Fold these 3 entries.
Entry 1:
Amino acid sequence: MSALGKVVRSGVARRRVPTIVTGLVVMVAVTSAVLGASLSVASRGPFERAFQQHHGAHLAVRIDPAKATPAQLDATATAAGVAAVAGPFPLATVSAGSGQFRMPPMEVAGRGTPDSAVDELTLTRGRWATGPAEIVLAANGRFNGPLLATGTELTLDNVPGNPVVTVVGFARSITRTADAWAPPDQVTAWQTAQNQNQNQSQNQNQTASQPGYQMLYRLTTAGTQAQVEAANEAIAAALPAGSLTSATSWLAVRRDVVGDTVLLIPFLIAFGLLGIVMAVLIVGNVIAGAVASATRRIGILKALGFTPGQVVRAYVTQALIPAAAGAVLGLGTGYLSTLPVITKTNDLYGTTDRGTAPWIGVLVVAGILAVVALTAWAASARAGRLRTVDALAVGRTPHAGRGRWASRLTSRIPLLSRPVSLGLAYPFTRPMRSAGMIAAIAFGAASVTFAVGLATSLSRIDEVEDIAAVQITAPMEGPRPSRITDPDKVVAAITAQSGTSGYLGTARTEVTTPGATGQLTAMGLTGPDASRYYRMVSGRWLRGPGEIVVATPFLTATGTKVGDQVTLTSEGRDIPVRIVGEAFNIDEDGMQILTDQATLGLTPEIYYITVKDGTDIGTYAAALSTALEPLGAVADTVDHSPPEMLVLIDALTALLTVLLVVVAGLGVLNTVVLETRDRVHDLGVHKALGMTPRQTIAMVIASVVLTGLAGGAAGVAVGVLVQRAVLAAMGRGTGFTLPASVVDAYGPGVVLLLAVGGLVIAVAGALLPAGWAARTRTVTALRTE
Amino acid sequence: MIELCDVTRRYDEGPPALDDICVSVAPGEAVAILGPSGSGKSTLLNLVAGLDHPTTGTVTVDGVRVDRLGEAASARYRRARIGLVFQFFNLLDDLTVSDNVMLPAQLAGTARADAERRAADLLARLGVSRHSDAYPGRLSGGERQRVAVARALMNNPALLLADEPTGALDTASGEEVRKLLTELHADGQTIILVTHDLTLATACATRTIRLLDGRITPSAAEGRAGARVTPSGAEGRAGARVTPSGAEGRNRATGDDAAGRDR
C-alpha cells in the first residue's frame, strides 16, 4: 500500500467519530434530499401523468338524445379544438342497494369495453361487464368501501321490475366520468323502462332518470377554463340547439381530485429546497470541521515529506469514503421512504410509477458528494498551504484571547454553578465553529417551524370546511340532488332534533355578471351557521338579501372591490347586489358568489348540520333521517377524513422534518465532539481539580445552550419568514388573498416552544459527547497533547 | 497517612509502570520521588491523586481507599484532600489568574465572594497578587507556577502533589518554586514531589524515593541532601524507615511517623 493509502486508511479507521458522523450525515442528507425532491415531483404530477396515460377526457358532455342524432354527435369530432372523441354512451341514473344497505343514486354509463381513445378505464378488481345484469363500479367512486365486493348483487330500486345486477368488477376513470358502467344495451334498457314508468306515474319518492348520452372529448388545448369553454361552445354549435344539456371540464375534476394539494406545491418546493440547503450546509460543516481538526496531523505529514497535493488527495479521499458509504445507504432509505408515496399516488390516480425517477437519486448523490469533495478540498488545501512549522504549531486549544470577555462575564453571573458558567463561555472562544453550529441548529429549527406553519395553515383552511357533522340531501335529479320540497319542515326537523348546534342550507345556480366571462356559480345560503364555513379576508359577512361575498379572483376578474354594486343575471333576471365582503373561498377557482338564498329566490339542495359536543353523530343522523323520511330527504354523516394525499404528504413532511432535525443534531454532535476533543486537556485539568462527571456533563451541555438558543431564535425567524414568503408566493400564484387567520400560524406560545426546539436539538446533539467527556479518564485527558 | 501496598500498575501488554511497590508517607512529610523518564514516578503520583487506579494493590490516604473510588468520588476526594501542581502549570488560558485559582473552590461549591477572598490571600502570600486580573499567558514561568501552587492550595489540601514543578522553568524561576515549596513544607504542608531535579529534592524533601523501571531501587530512600537512610531510619532527616526489599522481597519505602522525625 502506498504512503497515501496508509494515511487515508489510518485516518478513516482512527478518527472514528468524524468518520461515522460524516457517513450518517451524508446518509440522512441524501435520504432527506431524495424524499424532498420526490415529494415535490410526486405531489405535482400524478393526476396529470395519469390523465395522459389514460387519455383522460378534457370535456364530458351530456346530450339529450331527443334533440341530436348519432350522426350529429359524430360530427362534433371535427369541431374546433377537438382532438379525439368517444361516445355516445347511454346514461341512466339508478338507485341501488343490497338488503338493508342503500347506496346513493349513481350514474351508469353504457360502455362495451374499458378501452377507449378518450377516458380509458383501468380495471382494478374483477372483470369488465359483458353480459346483461352485470355492472362495474367506479373504484374511485363513493362506493368503493369494504361493504362491496365482486359478486355482490344489487337491486335497482328505481328501474321497473327492480332488476338485480351483479357487481363483476371495479374500474377507475381518471376523469370520473361515471359512478358505474354496464353494457350499452343494458343501460339503454334501463333508460327505456324508466322513461315508460315516468310517463305512467310521477312518484315523488322515486328517483327520476333523465335520458341522456355521454360524449367524451380530448381537446387540442385545455390548460385553462377559457380554452375548455371555447371547445364546449364549438361542440354545442355543431349540435342542434339545446341538445347539449351539461358539460364537465377536466379542470373541475382535477380540482376535486387534487384538492388542497394544489395549495401545497409552493410549500413542498420550499420545504424540499430547505432540506437540500440544510443537508449541504451540515455536510460542509462536518467535513470542514473534521479536516480543520486534523491540521496538526497534516503538519506532521508535511514534515515527513507529503506535498500539499498529496495532503489534499489524502483528506478528500478520507472524507469521500464514509460519504460514499452514507450516500449509498441514504439512497436506499430515501427510495424506500418514497415507496408509500408512489404506492398511494398509483392507487389514487391510476398511475403506474414504480419509484422515484433515477435522475433524482443520481443528482442528489452527485451533488452531496461534490459538496463533500469541495469542502474537504478547500479545508485541506488551506491546511496544506500552511507552512509546516505553522501547521505543527496549531495547538488543539483555541486561539488565546478569544472569548475571554465572555468567560469573565459568565463567571460573574450569580447563582450559576462554575461548570455551567465555564460552559456558557465556550462558544465565544471559537466563533466560526459556533457560527456553524448555530447555522445547523437554525436550519433544523427553521424546518420544524416551517413544517408547523404549513400544517397549521392547511388545517385552518380545512377546518372551516370540516365543521359539518351531518348533511341532508334530497334524491338525485340527474347529476345533482333535487331541491328540497319543503325547506321549512326540514329546518323544523333539524332544529327539533336533539343535539343540533346549527345548520347551513345551500343551493347552487348559474349567474352572469359584467366583467366575468361565462357563467358563474352562485351559492344561495341560509341558516345560522353560514358564516362559520368561510374565513373573511376583508369586509363583513352577509346580513340579508341583496348582498354578496366573493373571493379575491372574482374581485380581480371583475375589477371590483368590497362596497361596489354589481348586477347578477339569473335566468334572464337582473339582480343588483352589493359586495359586502371578501372571503377565502377556493371553490370554482375563487369565482363563486356567496349570497343569501333569498337574493336569487333559491331553495336549499343540501343542509349541513353542526352538532353539539358529545353528540353521537351516527345516532343523530339515523334519528334525523327517520324524522325526514316523510319529506323525502335523507340525513348522512359527513366524511371528515382529509384527502388521502394530504394525509400522506403530512406524514412525509413530518418524516422529512424529523430527518432534518436529526441532521441538525448530528451537526451539533460533530461540532461538540470536535470541541470536546480540542479541550480534552483542559477537561483533564478540570477533572484533576475536582470536577465530577456530573459537573463535566453540565459544562458540556451548557456550552451548547447559547448556540442552541441563538440557533433556535434564528431558525424560528427564518422559518416564519419562509412560511410568509411562501404564502405570499402562493397568493400571487393562485390569485387568492389569504386570511390573516391562515397566514398567522404562530402564536406567542408556539414561537417560544419552537425557539426552545433549537435548544433541544443542541442538547440532544451534545449529550453523547458530554457522556464521553464525563467518562474520559483524567490521566488520559491530561496526557493528551 | 498515605499507604501504597503491593501496588502494580500495568498498561496493556508492556512491562508494568509500577511493579509491586509499597510506600508510606506520614503527615507533614515532604517526599521526593526521583528517577529517570519512564520509571513510574508520575504513575505513582497519579495513583495517590486518584487520577489513575492500580492494576493490583491498594492506595489508602487518611483511611480512604483511593483505588476503589469512582470518577465522581475521586473528584470529590481531590477537591477535599489534594492539591496538584503540574510541570506545565496546566493553567486555563481562558481564565484570569484569579479565576484559575478560585476554580477548585468553586467546583466544590464555595460562594464566589468567599473564593475571591481566599484566592486574594493566596496570591498575596505567593507574591503574585498584582497579576490577579491578568491571563496566565502574560506571566513568566515562575509566576505561572506560583499561580498553579496557589490554585493547588485553594481548598486547604492535606496533601500537595507536585509533578516536576520546576521541569519547565528556567533556573531563576526554578529557584523561586524551590523556595516556595520549602516554605510550604516548613509550614507543615505534606508534599509528594516528583522530580528529576536533585537540587529541588535536596532543598524540599525530607525523604526521597528512587524509582527505576517501576521498582524502588535498592538505595530506595535517602534523607535530606541525598544522605543514605538506614533501614532503621535513625539517620534519616525525615526519620523514614526503609526496607529496601522487605521481608518478602517487595519494594518498600515507609515513613515512620514518630521516630526520627526532624521537625
Entry 2:
Amino acid sequence: MIFGAVGFLFAALAAGIPVVLHMINRQKARDLPFSTLRFLRISVNKTRRRRRIQDALLMIVRMAVLMLIAFGLAQPTVTSLRDLFGDARSAVVIVLDNSASMDLTDAGRPRFETAADAARQIVDHLEDDDEVALLVTNGPDLGQPDKPDRNPEDVHLVLDQIRVSAERADLTEAMVRAKTLLEKSNAANKQIWLLSDLQEHSLASLQAAMQKPKKSQDENADAEGEEQEDTEKEPSAVIVVDCHRQPKANVAVTGVTLKSQIPVAGLPITCTVELTNASTVPRKCHLELLIDGPESHKQSSPVILVPPSGRETYSFQHAFGRAGHYRCEARLVDEDGSILDNRRFFAIEIDPGIRVALVKQRRHEVARLDDTFYIEQSLLPGDDGESVLVPTVLTAADLETEPLGYKVIFCVNLKPLSAPSAERLRQYVQDGGNVVWICGDNVDPAGYNQMNETAGGSLLPAKLLQLHQAGKGENAGIDAWEVDYIDGAHPALTGLDDPESLYRSILVQQYVAVQQPGDNAAGVLARLDNDAPLLLQRKFTTGSTTLLTTSAGDRWTNLARRPIFAPLLVKLAHDLAGTKMSRRDLPAGDPLVLALAGETAERKIRIKPPQGQELDFSTVADPAGGQIFAYADTHQTGIYRLSSQQTTPSLNVAYSINVDPQEADQRKTDREELQAWFGDIPVVFAEDPDDLTSTFKLLDEGESLWVLFLSLVLVALVFETFLSNWFSPKQVDEDEMDVPPGMRRLARKGRGAA
Amino acid sequence: MSQGTGYRYLEPSALARVKNLSVVARGVVEGAATGLHASPYKGFSVEFAEHREYTAGDDPRHIDYRMLARTDRLYIKQYEEETNMRVQVLLDISGSMGYSHEGEISKLQYGSYLTAILSYLMTRQQDSVGLTTFDEEIRLDMPARNSPRHFNEMMRQLEAIEPGRMTDVAETLHKLANRFKKRCLIVLISDLYDEPEDVIRALHHFRHRRHEVIVFHVFDKAEIDFPFRDVVAFHDMETDERLQVDAPAVRDAYMQQVEAFIEGYRRACAEAQIDYVMTDTSTPYDFMLSRYIAKRNKP
C-alpha cells in the first residue's frame, strides 16, 4: 500500500483527541454537595460495567473515525503484487480468441481487431526483462510457445499474421495451457490476459478445469508444504479484455438440411436453410442458393423475416439434371455483423440413376416369355423418359462373376443359387445391398431354405414352406385368393392402399407359403385374404431382403397386369435405393477422417482443398483394421474433395467444412460467474478494451481506497450517532412528569392495563 | 422575620390559607383540657358514655333515678369527656436536611415552616404542641403545652435551629417512643435517610404505644429529578464522602432507587395505618398541608 500524501498520516494522531477530551472533562468535574450518596453509590455500581463498555466502544468508534479520516486524506492505494515484489519480473500469457464469433463487428470494429490491438498494447507495455507468450485459440499453428520468453517482437510477428478463423473456440483448453506455461516461469508476477468475447459455450468447462483437485484428509496433511509452492505457481491475476460490447445486428446461416428420396438426376431435392438471428431486433434477409458442378444454378429467396433472438428456415427446391459431384452454397446476400457465418457449404453427389439388376434363370428368345418381362416394362423409362431407374438384366450364372454394383437386385423365379452365387449375394447384402426375391415355378422351397441357412439366414426374410395352388388339394374349393391387406404406412407402399380396389383386384392362384415371421424378424407388407403373407421384408444393419410369394408372370396371378404393379416396383426400388444417402459435413478445425475398411495396403489419397493446390497423402494402417486417412488442416471453410484411384471401388467423396453453428450464439458468460470459476485468483476486467491504459495503471499502481475510506468514515459516523443515541439517558415520559415519585411505577402499570 | 406575625417561619399568607382548618385526631387522645378530640377518660361532661353500678363514695348527684325506677338498682351515669390533643412534632435536623439545590429553600427550612404552621393550628384549637429536634441524638425536647408563651418559645427555638451532622432516625424515634407515655399525635418531619427497615420498625413502636403518627417525608426537588448534567463530584453533606459520577448516565438508575425508597415507605406506612405524605421543597407547604388536612378530615 502506498500513500499519495503521507503527511496526512500524522493526522492519525488526532485519534488521541477523544482520550484527551475525556481526561480534561474528568478534571473539570463540578464539586457539589448532596444530601446523601446512598442512592448514587448503588446506581453507579449498577451501571459501572455497562457504562465502561459503552464508553470504550464509543471511544474506539470515535478514534476509528478520526484515524480513517487521516488515512483517507493520505490517499492510500492498494499496490499490485508487482510493487510488493519490488522490481520483480512479470510473465504474461496472452490468450487471444480468434474464433468465428470474433469476426462480428462490435462497437464499430470487428472484435478480433479490438483484441489484436489490445494484445499489441499489452506487449508494448512490458518491461525489458518481462516474459511473454501468445496463445491463439484457433487457426493454423504459427509456432505456439512452450514457455514465456523475453522476445516481444516474436509476438508482434505472430499478431501480424493471424486472422480470425471460422472455428469454434475452446478457451478452457487455452486457459489451462496458459496456466501450464506460467508454471514454467520463475517470474514473481504472473498474469494471464484473456482477450475474448466470452461466449458461453467457449468457457463451458472452465470451472472444472480451473479448480484444484480435491485432496483427502491424509493428503492434506502431507500437502501443506506443497500448497505454498502451488500458490507460487498460480497466476497472480487474470485480466479479461471483454470484446463483447455492442455487437452489430447479425444473422447467421446455421444449418442446411437436404431432403430427397434419392439423390439422382431428375429427382427434386429440397434444401432447407436455417437462419439464426442473434440480435434483439428482427432482421430481413435474402438468401441465395448457388450450385456449381456439371451444371451451374442460382436461386434467390424472397425477403425472409428472422425474429429477434430466433430462427427461421427457408426451403429451396432443385432437380439436378445431370449426375455428378456438386459444390453447393447457401449464403446471405445482405450485409450484417459478420460475413464469416453468412455462408454454408454443402456437397452433394447426384447419381445418374438407380442401378437395378433383374436376374432371371435364363433368357428367352421371346421376350414376353421371360419371367422378368413385366418387371422390365415397369422399370424401364416410359415414353417421357423420366424414370431414374436403370435396369440391367442378368442370368443366374452372371451372379458368380458380374460386379454387384447395384442398388437393388431383383431375383426373379430363380432356382436355388449355386454356393458361390449365394455367398456373393450374402456379401452384397452385408455390404448394404438389397435383394428382392420373386417366386415362380423354379422356386424350390427346400433348396431355398438350405441356401438361406448356408448364408446364415441373411438371404430370405422367412423360411419357405410349400406351394399353394387354388382349386387343388386342400384348396379345392378356392378359385383364387384376393389381397386383403397392404401396409400403407411403409414408404414403398405409400398411396397404394387407397382406393382399396387398387389391391383388392389382385387375384392369386398360386403362392409359396412362408413360415409366419416372428416379432423381430421380417415385416409383412401385404397379405392374402387367407392371412398368408404376400410381400415380406427383412432389414439388416445396412442391407435388406424382400420376398414376393407369388410370381411376376401371369400364370400364378394377375398382379403383373394390374395397375398397382408398376408403381409398386418403382416405389420399392426407390425406397430400397434411397436408404444410403449420407452427407459428410464437419465444423472448421475438426480433422477430416476417412476409414477404408476394405483396404489392406497403403493407398494414395489426393485432396483438393477449397483453395490452393491439390495435395497427395498416404493412408496409414488403422489399428481397428483396414486403412485410415486423416487430414487436420481444415481451418478453411468450403468443399474438400478426396479422391483415389487405388481403392476399390475408386474413391471420390467430398466433405463440406463450415463455421460451427454455435459461434452464432451470442450468449455471454456472466462476469461474476467467471470470477467465481477462477477461485482465489483475482480477476480484473479491463474498463476499455480499446485503450488499456487505465487497466495498466490499476495493475501497476493499484486501486485508490479513497472511496472505501470515505464509505467507512460515513458508516462509522452513522454508527457513532446510533450508539450515542442508544446510550444516552432516556427522558422521563411527559405523562409521568406530574406523577409524584413513588407513584410513577403504579402509573405505568395503570397505563399498561388501560 | 415575617412581617405581621413576628415569627420567621409563620407567614401571614400561609396563615390565611389554613385559618379555617382544624386538625382532628382520628383516635382518642389523652388530653388535660377540654378540646375537640375524644378522650379515653370518662368524666361528667355532656356526652353520656355508660352506666356503672353505684359504689360507696360515689357522688349521689350522678345517680340515674330513671334506672332506679326501672330496675330497682342504683346506677351511676358516666359521660365521655372531650379533651384537647397532644401533638409532638419531631423535626429531623440532620445534615442532609440542610440540602438545597441552587440556593432554594432547604428541607430543614421547609420542615420548620411546616412545624410552625402546624403548631399555630394546634394551639389555636386548644391542643397542646411540643417540639423535638434530632439528628443522631435528641437536640431539643419541648413537651406539649398549650400556652402562648410556650408557642412563642417554640417559634424562637425553630429560628435558632442549625443543621446537625449525622442521622440516626430509627434509634432516635425508639427513644422518643419510650419517652411519650400518653397517647398523642406524632408528626415526623424528616427526609428519612436511614435504613428504611429500622425506621419503619421505630414507627411501629409509636403505633404500638397507640400514638397516631403522621410522616411528612420531605425531599428537595433535585433529589427526585436529579437534574445534573455532565460529570459531577458529589460530596455527602453528612459524611463528607466524595463520589464522581456521570450524572446523565446514572440518572435512570438513581431515580429508580429513589422511587423504590419512597414506595417502600409508602407501603409500610399504609400497612401500619400511618399517614404518609411525600413532599418536596418546590411544593408550597401551606398548599400541601391544606390539601392533606382536607383529605384527612374527609369522613
Entry 3:
Amino acid sequence: MTTLRLKTWPAVPLEAEAITPDRFVGKTSAEIEALPVHHGNQEAALGDFFAVSGDGTPDIAIEGDLARVKLIGAGMTQGQITVHGDAGMHLGAAMSGGRIGVHGNAGDWAGAEMRGGQIYIRGNAGHGLGGAYRGSPQGMNRGLIVVAGSAGNEVGSAMRRGVIVVGGNTGDFTGAFMIAGSILVFGNLGERAGAGMKRGSIITYQTPKLLPTFRYACTYRPVFLRLLLRELRSLGQEIAEEWFERRYRRYCGDLTAFGKGEILAWEGP
Amino acid sequence: MYINGVEIEDTFAEAFKMWGTRVIITAKNRQWAMTAAIKMTGFATSVIGCKCEAGIESEVTDTPDGRPGVSVLLFTPSKDDLPKRLMERIGQCVMTCPTTACFNGLESPDVLPVGGQLRYFGDGYQASKLLGGRRFWRIPVMEGEFLIEEKFGMQRSVGGGNFLILGEGPDVTLEAAERAVEAMQRVRGMVMPFPGGIVRSGSKTRSKYKFLIASTNDAFCPTLRGVVETALPEGVNCVLEIVIDGLDLPAVEEATRLGIRAACIPGIRRISAGNYGGTLGQFQIHLRRVMEG
C-alpha cells in the first residue's frame, strides 16, 4: 500500500490529478513525491504537500483533511484509493475503473462523468454528483456511487448509465436531463427532480414533490428493482425487506422531454 | 456384467451433438414458475418431430430476483436454431405467464440474443437496465412488466443419451423406469425430455417408407418377436427407454449410471441401449464402462 499523509495544508486548492493508482504503479516513493500538482496557478510537486511512504502499488491510502485537494482519483482505471478524511472537488471524475472510499465528505462533482468503477462516500457529497459538466452532453456512464449522507443539487445530471445511491437527501434537480441509469434516494428528493429526463429511473422512498410534467401511471412491484436492491445489499448497503415487499407508484416523465423516464415512489410501510 | 441380477448388455448408447442453454424462470411463487416452465418445455421431446428438446432441470432457490425459480434446459441440433426456439418459447410461454421473469442460467463465451429480440414486443416502450454487468429488458405488458435478460449463454451439448429397460411385464418395467427417473433427477446439467422422462416408442434411424427418417425400433418390440430379428431375450414382454440430453458428456454419463443402478430391480431382465451401429451420433456411451466408473 502507498500511504500519503498531508503535511502542508494548501493555502488555495491543490489540483492533484496525479493521485491515481495508474500514476503510482511501479514508482518509488521518491518518484511519487516528484509527481506534478498545481497549487493555485503555481506548479508544485506532490511531495511539497504530502509525505509518501510505501512504493507504487495500486492501493493508496490518504490521511489528512483533503477538502482542498481536487481531482483525487480522477480518470483512474484500476486499484483503490481510501481517503481517511474529507476529499475535495472532482473526486473520481471521469474514472473508469477501481474503487474510491471516502471516510468523510466529498466536494462538488464527485464521480462526474465517470465511466466505471465504484465510489463510496461515508459522509455527504456536494453538487453535481455523478453529473455532467457544463456544456457536456453526458454525465456518469457506468459505475456505482454510494453516498451514506446527503448530496447537493444536480445529482446524476444527464447521467447515461450506472447507479447512484444517496442515503440521505438530495438537493434540487436530481436526475435532471437524465438519459438513462438509476438514482436511488432514501431521504427526500429536492425540487424539480427528473426535470428534462428522457429515460432512466429515479427511485425515492419519501413522498416526492413532482413537476407537473410527470404523470402517474400505476402502483406496482417492478421486478428489476428487486435485482438492483439485491445487488446493493450484496455490496453492503442496508436494504429494508419492506422495500421488496411493498409497491411503488410509477410516474412517467419528463413529458417535456422524451417522456420515457420514471420516478418510482415507494408507497410506504 | 450383472447388477442385482440384471444383465448389463455390452453395448453403447449413441448420443449426438447439440447446442444447449439454461433458462431460469422466476415468478411470484413456485407454482407459477413451474407453470411457465411446463409450458415452455411442452412438445419438445425429440428433434425427430419437434424443433427442439427441452426439460425442467430443477427448482432453484438462489435466483437473480430472489423469487422462487425453475431451471429449464433447451437443446437444438444447430447453433442457429437455438435463438429462434428460445425466442418462440420464452415469448409464447414465459412472457405470457403471470408474474414471471426470465434469466440466463449459463455462463458461456457463446451467447445468443433473447431479451435483445423479444424487447421489440414493447413497441418502443421497452426499457433496459444494466445491473451488475448484465443487461435486462423491461417490457411493458398488461399485467405490469416482463423482465428478461438480454443475452443467454449456450454451449456444445450432448443429446440422445439413453438406455433401455427390458422387463418381464409392463408394470415392473414402468416401476423400474420411474425409479430410474427419480434417481436421475438429482443430476444437474441434464434433462429427460420425454413424458415423465420415459419413452415407450423408441425408434430406429430408418424406415421402409421414404418419407420417414425414423420408425419403430422393431428389434425391441415384443409383439414382433416372431417376425423380426429380435433383440429381446426370453421372458421380456415390455421395453421402456430413458433419453437424456445434457449440457456435457459427464452429466449424461452420471445420469446413465444412477438411472441404470436404480432400474435394476427384480423383474427386469436386461439393460440395453439405443445403438444404431454408429449411424446416429458422435458420442458412444458404453454401458459397462459407465457402470464400472
